[in-house]
Amino acid sequence: MRIKQRFSGIVAVLRKYPRIPVAIVLLSVFLVCAVLAPWISPYDPIKIDLSATYAKPSPQYFLGTDYIGRDVFSRLIWGTRSTVYSAILSILFATIIGTLLGTIAGFFGGYVDTVISRFVDILLTLPAFIIAIVLMGILGRGLINMVVAIGIGMSPRIARVARGAALSVKGREYIEAARSYGCSNARILFGHVIPHCLTPIFVYATLSLGSAVMLESGLSFLGLGIPPPTPTWGKTISEGVDVMRTMPWISTVAGGCIMLLVLGFNLLGDGLRDALDPRMRRQLR
Protein backbone atom coordinates (compact mmCIF):
# COMPACT_ATOMS: atom_id res chain seq x y z
CA MET A 1 0.00 0.00 0.00
CA ARG A 2 2.80 2.40 0.91
CA ILE A 3 4.67 1.60 -2.28
CA LYS A 4 1.52 2.31 -4.29
CA GLN A 5 1.03 5.64 -2.51
CA ARG A 6 4.63 6.66 -3.10
CA PHE A 7 4.39 5.69 -6.77
CA SER A 8 1.17 7.71 -7.11
CA GLY A 9 2.91 10.68 -5.50
CA ILE A 10 5.81 10.46 -7.92
CA VAL A 11 3.45 10.27 -10.89
CA ALA A 12 1.55 13.31 -9.60
CA VAL A 13 4.76 15.32 -9.32
CA LEU A 14 5.85 14.35 -12.83
CA ARG A 15 2.48 15.37 -14.23
CA LYS A 16 2.56 18.69 -12.42
CA TYR A 17 6.12 19.48 -13.52
CA PRO A 18 6.41 18.11 -17.09
CA ARG A 19 9.93 19.46 -17.52
CA ILE A 20 11.27 16.79 -15.20
CA PRO A 21 10.18 13.69 -17.21
CA VAL A 22 11.37 15.32 -20.46
CA ALA A 23 14.74 15.98 -18.85
CA ILE A 24 14.89 12.44 -17.47
CA VAL A 25 14.30 10.98 -20.93
CA LEU A 26 16.98 13.16 -22.53
CA LEU A 27 19.54 12.57 -19.81
CA SER A 28 18.82 8.85 -19.66
CA VAL A 29 19.82 8.49 -23.32
CA PHE A 30 23.16 10.17 -22.68
CA LEU A 31 23.78 8.27 -19.45
CA VAL A 32 23.13 4.96 -21.22
CA CYS A 33 25.60 5.94 -23.94
CA ALA A 34 28.17 6.95 -21.32
CA VAL A 35 27.86 3.77 -19.27
CA LEU A 36 27.44 1.29 -22.16
CA ALA A 37 29.85 2.93 -24.61
CA PRO A 38 32.13 -0.14 -24.86
CA TRP A 39 29.19 -2.34 -25.87
CA ILE A 40 27.10 -0.08 -28.13
CA SER A 41 29.79 1.67 -30.16
CA PRO A 42 30.31 -0.18 -33.47
CA TYR A 43 34.06 0.52 -33.71
CA ASP A 44 37.05 1.32 -31.57
CA PRO A 45 36.96 5.16 -31.30
CA ILE A 46 40.74 5.50 -31.49
CA LYS A 47 41.41 2.94 -34.23
CA ILE A 48 43.07 4.57 -37.25
CA ASP A 49 42.23 3.42 -40.78
CA LEU A 50 44.05 5.57 -43.32
CA SER A 51 42.33 3.74 -46.17
CA ALA A 52 38.95 5.16 -45.07
CA THR A 53 39.73 8.81 -44.34
CA TYR A 54 36.80 11.22 -44.64
CA ALA A 55 34.39 8.46 -45.64
CA LYS A 56 30.85 9.73 -46.08
CA PRO A 57 27.89 8.36 -44.05
CA SER A 58 26.99 4.83 -45.05
CA PRO A 59 25.58 1.64 -43.51
CA GLN A 60 29.16 0.81 -42.49
CA TYR A 61 29.92 4.23 -40.98
CA PHE A 62 26.74 5.96 -39.80
CA LEU A 63 28.35 9.40 -39.63
CA GLY A 64 31.39 8.78 -41.78
CA THR A 65 34.99 8.96 -40.63
CA ASP A 66 37.41 11.74 -39.73
CA TYR A 67 40.75 12.80 -41.18
CA ILE A 68 42.54 9.63 -40.06
CA GLY A 69 39.71 7.16 -40.66
CA ARG A 70 38.23 6.95 -37.17
CA ASP A 71 34.50 6.28 -36.95
CA VAL A 72 32.73 9.54 -36.00
CA PHE A 73 29.66 7.81 -34.56
CA SER A 74 31.77 5.70 -32.21
CA ARG A 75 33.73 8.76 -31.12
CA LEU A 76 30.51 10.61 -30.34
CA ILE A 77 29.30 7.73 -28.17
CA TRP A 78 32.57 7.58 -26.27
CA GLY A 79 32.66 11.38 -26.10
CA THR A 80 29.43 11.21 -24.10
CA ARG A 81 31.33 9.50 -21.32
CA SER A 82 34.02 12.18 -21.22
CA THR A 83 31.54 15.06 -21.26
CA VAL A 84 29.01 13.67 -18.78
CA TYR A 85 31.59 12.45 -16.29
CA SER A 86 33.62 15.67 -16.38
CA ALA A 87 30.51 17.86 -16.00
CA ILE A 88 29.15 15.91 -13.02
CA LEU A 89 32.52 15.70 -11.27
CA SER A 90 33.21 19.39 -11.89
CA ILE A 91 29.92 20.51 -10.39
CA LEU A 92 30.34 18.11 -7.48
CA PHE A 93 33.76 19.63 -6.75
CA ALA A 94 32.38 23.17 -7.20
CA THR A 95 29.45 22.40 -4.91
CA ILE A 96 31.70 21.14 -2.12
CA ILE A 97 34.05 24.14 -2.32
CA GLY A 98 31.27 26.69 -2.82
CA THR A 99 29.09 25.28 -0.04
CA LEU A 100 31.93 25.34 2.47
CA LEU A 101 33.00 28.88 1.59
CA GLY A 102 29.46 30.26 1.44
CA THR A 103 28.10 28.68 4.60
CA ILE A 104 31.20 29.56 6.62
CA ALA A 105 30.94 33.19 5.47
CA GLY A 106 27.21 33.43 6.15
CA PHE A 107 27.29 31.59 9.47
CA PHE A 108 30.25 33.31 11.14
CA GLY A 109 29.81 36.76 9.57
CA GLY A 110 32.09 39.63 10.56
CA TYR A 111 35.70 39.53 9.43
CA VAL A 112 35.39 35.95 8.11
CA ASP A 113 32.44 36.93 5.93
CA THR A 114 34.24 40.03 4.65
CA VAL A 115 37.38 38.15 3.62
CA ILE A 116 35.57 35.26 1.95
CA SER A 117 32.99 37.49 0.25
CA ARG A 118 35.64 39.83 -1.20
CA PHE A 119 37.59 36.83 -2.48
CA VAL A 120 34.45 35.43 -4.10
CA ASP A 121 33.62 38.85 -5.58
CA ILE A 122 37.06 39.01 -7.19
CA LEU A 123 36.52 35.61 -8.80
CA LEU A 124 33.04 36.64 -9.95
CA THR A 125 34.51 39.53 -11.94
CA LEU A 126 36.16 36.94 -14.21
CA PRO A 127 34.18 34.61 -16.49
CA ALA A 128 34.37 30.99 -15.41
CA PHE A 129 35.77 30.08 -18.84
CA ILE A 130 38.72 32.47 -18.39
CA ILE A 131 39.46 31.04 -14.95
CA ALA A 132 39.33 27.52 -16.37
CA ILE A 133 41.67 28.42 -19.25
CA VAL A 134 44.22 29.97 -16.89
CA LEU A 135 44.13 27.00 -14.52
CA MET A 136 44.41 24.50 -17.37
CA GLY A 137 47.45 26.40 -18.61
CA ILE A 138 48.98 26.07 -15.16
CA LEU A 139 47.91 22.52 -14.31
CA GLY A 140 48.13 20.98 -17.79
CA ARG A 141 45.66 18.83 -19.68
CA GLY A 142 43.87 15.87 -18.15
CA LEU A 143 40.50 14.88 -16.72
CA ILE A 144 41.36 15.58 -13.08
CA ASN A 145 42.95 18.94 -13.88
CA MET A 146 39.93 19.92 -15.99
CA VAL A 147 37.54 18.94 -13.19
CA VAL A 148 39.51 21.13 -10.77
CA ALA A 149 39.70 24.04 -13.23
CA ILE A 150 35.99 24.01 -14.09
CA GLY A 151 35.05 23.40 -10.45
CA ILE A 152 37.03 26.41 -9.24
CA GLY A 153 35.56 28.53 -12.02
CA MET A 154 32.00 27.55 -11.07
CA SER A 155 32.38 27.57 -7.26
CA PRO A 156 32.04 31.36 -6.64
CA ARG A 157 28.43 31.40 -7.86
CA ILE A 158 27.55 28.42 -5.71
CA ALA A 159 29.27 30.12 -2.77
CA ARG A 160 26.99 33.15 -3.18
CA VAL A 161 23.92 30.92 -3.13
CA ALA A 162 25.21 29.05 -0.08
CA ARG A 163 25.99 32.29 1.77
CA GLY A 164 22.50 33.64 1.18
CA ALA A 165 20.95 30.40 2.39
CA ALA A 166 23.18 30.36 5.49
CA LEU A 167 22.23 33.95 6.36
CA SER A 168 18.55 33.01 6.29
CA VAL A 169 19.11 29.89 8.39
CA LYS A 170 21.49 30.99 11.12
CA GLY A 171 18.83 33.04 12.93
CA ARG A 172 16.28 30.24 13.13
CA GLU A 173 15.04 28.87 16.43
CA TYR A 174 16.67 25.45 16.08
CA ILE A 175 20.07 27.13 15.70
CA GLU A 176 19.52 29.04 18.94
CA ALA A 177 18.34 25.83 20.57
CA ALA A 178 21.52 24.06 19.49
CA ARG A 179 23.59 26.89 20.97
CA SER A 180 21.69 26.66 24.24
CA TYR A 181 22.57 22.97 24.45
CA GLY A 182 26.25 23.88 24.17
CA CYS A 183 26.86 22.63 20.63
CA SER A 184 30.07 23.85 19.05
CA ASN A 185 30.08 26.10 15.98
CA ALA A 186 31.43 23.25 13.85
CA ARG A 187 28.64 20.92 14.96
CA ILE A 188 25.98 23.58 14.34
CA LEU A 189 27.47 24.40 10.92
CA PHE A 190 27.71 20.82 9.66
CA GLY A 191 24.78 19.38 11.58
CA HIS A 192 22.17 22.10 11.19
CA VAL A 193 23.15 24.96 8.85
CA ILE A 194 24.50 23.09 5.84
CA PRO A 195 21.72 20.43 5.76
CA HIS A 196 19.07 23.18 5.71
CA CYS A 197 20.90 25.02 2.92
CA LEU A 198 21.13 22.05 0.57
CA THR A 199 17.87 22.58 -1.34
CA PRO A 200 18.78 25.89 -3.08
CA ILE A 201 22.37 24.73 -3.50
CA PHE A 202 21.25 21.46 -5.10
CA VAL A 203 18.91 23.25 -7.49
CA TYR A 204 21.56 25.76 -8.53
CA ALA A 205 24.16 23.01 -8.93
CA THR A 206 21.78 21.12 -11.22
CA LEU A 207 21.24 24.25 -13.31
CA SER A 208 25.03 24.70 -13.47
CA LEU A 209 25.59 21.29 -15.07
CA GLY A 210 24.74 22.74 -18.48
CA SER A 211 27.36 25.46 -18.01
CA ALA A 212 29.91 22.81 -17.03
CA VAL A 213 29.18 20.93 -20.26
CA MET A 214 29.77 24.11 -22.24
CA LEU A 215 33.02 24.79 -20.39
CA GLU A 216 34.30 21.27 -20.97
CA SER A 217 33.41 21.42 -24.66
CA GLY A 218 35.04 24.82 -25.03
CA LEU A 219 38.26 23.67 -23.39
CA SER A 220 38.33 20.55 -25.55
CA PHE A 221 37.68 22.62 -28.67
CA LEU A 222 40.73 24.76 -27.85
CA GLY A 223 42.85 21.67 -27.16
CA LEU A 224 43.04 22.33 -23.40
CA GLY A 225 40.77 19.50 -22.25
CA ILE A 226 41.35 15.77 -22.09
CA PRO A 227 44.38 14.94 -24.25
CA PRO A 228 44.05 12.76 -27.35
CA PRO A 229 43.31 10.08 -28.33
CA THR A 230 40.41 10.15 -25.83
CA PRO A 231 37.36 11.35 -27.81
CA THR A 232 35.41 14.42 -26.68
CA TRP A 233 32.61 16.36 -28.31
CA GLY A 234 34.53 19.62 -28.30
CA LYS A 235 37.50 17.98 -30.02
CA THR A 236 35.17 16.42 -32.61
CA ILE A 237 33.78 19.87 -33.44
CA SER A 238 37.30 21.23 -33.73
CA GLU A 239 38.33 18.42 -36.08
CA GLY A 240 35.26 19.01 -38.27
CA VAL A 241 35.76 22.76 -38.70
CA ASP A 242 38.28 22.33 -41.54
CA VAL A 243 35.79 20.32 -43.60
CA MET A 244 32.65 22.19 -42.58
CA ARG A 245 31.63 22.90 -46.18
CA THR A 246 32.09 19.37 -47.52
CA MET A 247 31.31 17.30 -44.38
CA PRO A 248 29.21 19.52 -42.09
CA TRP A 249 27.71 16.61 -40.15
CA ILE A 250 30.92 16.00 -38.18
CA SER A 251 30.68 19.29 -36.30
CA THR A 252 26.93 19.78 -36.40
CA VAL A 253 26.04 16.41 -34.90
CA ALA A 254 28.56 16.89 -32.08
CA GLY A 255 27.19 20.39 -31.50
CA GLY A 256 23.67 18.98 -31.48
CA CYS A 257 24.66 16.47 -28.80
CA ILE A 258 26.03 19.30 -26.65
CA MET A 259 22.84 21.30 -27.16
CA LEU A 260 20.57 18.39 -26.17
CA LEU A 261 22.64 17.52 -23.10
CA VAL A 262 22.64 21.14 -21.92
CA LEU A 263 18.89 21.30 -22.59
CA GLY A 264 18.34 18.18 -20.50
CA PHE A 265 20.28 19.56 -17.54
CA ASN A 266 18.53 22.95 -17.77
CA LEU A 267 15.08 21.36 -17.92
CA LEU A 268 15.93 19.19 -14.93
CA GLY A 269 17.17 22.19 -12.97
CA ASP A 270 14.09 24.25 -13.84
CA GLY A 271 11.79 21.40 -12.91
CA LEU A 272 13.50 20.82 -9.57
CA ARG A 273 13.38 24.54 -8.83
CA ASP A 274 9.63 24.58 -9.45
CA ALA A 275 9.10 21.40 -7.43
CA LEU A 276 11.27 22.33 -4.43
CA ASP A 277 10.70 26.09 -4.14
CA PRO A 278 7.58 26.77 -1.99
CA ARG A 279 6.98 30.13 -3.72
CA MET A 280 6.98 28.49 -7.16
CA ARG A 281 4.61 25.77 -5.92
CA ARG A 282 2.13 28.39 -4.72
CA GLN A 283 2.27 30.15 -8.10
CA LEU A 284 1.60 26.90 -9.96
CA ARG A 285 -1.44 25.92 -7.89
Could you walk me through the main structural features you see in this protein, from its secondary elements to its overall organization?
The chain has helices at residues 2-16, 19-35, 37-40, 72-108, 110-124, 128-139, 143-169, 173-180, 185-221, 233-240, 249-276, 278-284. It is mainly α and 285 residues long. Helix 4 runs parallel beside helix 7 (143-169), helix 5 (110-124) packs across helix 7 and helix 10 runs antiparallel to helix 11. The mean pLDDT is 86.
Brief write-up:
75% of the residues lie in helices and 0% in strands. The chain has 12 helices and no strands. The longest helix has 37 residues, at 72-108.
Outline the secondary-structure elements.
Elements: H1 2-16, H2 19-35, H3 37-40, H4 72-108, H5 110-124, H6 128-139, H7 143-169, H8 173-180, H9 185-221, H10 233-240, H11 249-276, H12 278-284
Defining traits:
single chain, 285 residues, mainly alpha, MetI-like fold, 12 helices
In CATH's first tier, which class applies? Mainly Alpha
SS field, number of helical segments: 12
- What's the total number of strands? 0
The computed structural class is mainly alpha
Measure the end-to-end span.
27 Å
What is the ordering of alpha helices and beta strands? HHHHHHHHHHHH
Unreliable sequence segments? none
Any idea what the CATH superfamily is called? MetI-like
Q: Rg, please?
A: 22 Å
Our count of domains comes out at 1
Shape: elongated
- Relative helix content: over 70%
Mind describing the biggest β-sheet? none
CATH topology: MetI-like fold
Please indicate the percent range of residues in DSSP E strands (runs of 2 or more): under 5%
